[in-house]
Amino acid sequence: MEEYNSGEEVSFNADEASVSVKECIEGIIGGIDYNQNKVNQWTASIVEHSLTQLVKQGRPFKFIVNCAIMQKSGAGLHTANSCYWDTATDGSCTVRWENRTMYCVVSVFAVAVTC
Amino acid sequence: MDEFQSSEETAFVVDDITTIIKDTVETTIGSSAYQQNRINQWTSSVVETSLNQLSKLGKPFKYIVTCIILQKNGAGLHTASSCFWDNTMDGSCTVRWENKTTYCIVSVFGLAV
After folding, report:
1. Between the N and C ends of chain B, which has fewer C-beta atoms within 10 Å?
2. pLDDT digit string, tens, across residues A23-33
3. Which keywords label this protein (chain B) (predicted)?
């Protein structure tokens, strides 16, 4: 009775998180050109805002939000993730976004808290 | 006494993990030049091998390993991470590696179970 989710498994909703993160990115760098001076602020803002939105959902998860912004200049970029966790309750989602001058890749990892 | 020992074994040790990751990247990419058709294998190989090595440590952690491989051609790349977790038990470490044609950035996040 006192337990938060007595018997009910709460799993990560990747779609919702994806929508939330896209909005954060649009709000921060939508329509702006790559600017070396500002890119540090942008990555920091994106991860902080995304994290705040995710935590607001009030679910029993620990979160990790990762953001990479790359200038469009023809260089090749590859990313990969691998996770060692409980596949029933934990999950991740990755959002790829771009505009005229840059790519932005945000990954969210959610790990269930067992207490 | 027992408590002290068990907290040593269950801590996230950044140095050990950094060494494991560095070795994995060296072995997988080493001095190879950036090649678009092999890059997928490299990223997959780095994360899988790293994860295998980490799980062999036998600590009570869930792990997330991310790897970024970038061709050196003058483009700017910035990354940031933000984490909502238990500061006393969870931890992360990032390893930056490069050779003549490639940058490789690997991040490991460990969350205590």
Report:
1. N
2. 999 999 998 99
3. Cytoplasm, Cytoskeleton, Dynein, Microtubule, Motor protein
- Pick the residue of A29, A51, A72, A84 with the most B CBs within 10 A to test the interface with B by mutation: A84
Contact B95, B14 (CB under 8 A): no
Q: How wide is the angle at C-alpha B34 spanned by C-alphas A46 and A100, nearest 5°?
A: 40
ipTM at complex level:
0.74
Contact A75 B79 (CB under 8 A): no
8 Å CB contact of A83 and B64 = yes
Average pLDDT, chain A: 86
Structure tokens at A79: 């990313």
Strand intervals (E) in A1-115:
61-71, 77-84, 91-98, 102-112
Q: What is the mean pLDDT of each run of 10 residues along chain B (113 residues)?
A: 53 88 90 86 89 90 91 86 89 91 91 88
The residues near B88 (Cβ < 8 Å, ≥ 6 apart) are none
Q: Closest residue of A to B50, CA-based?
A: A82
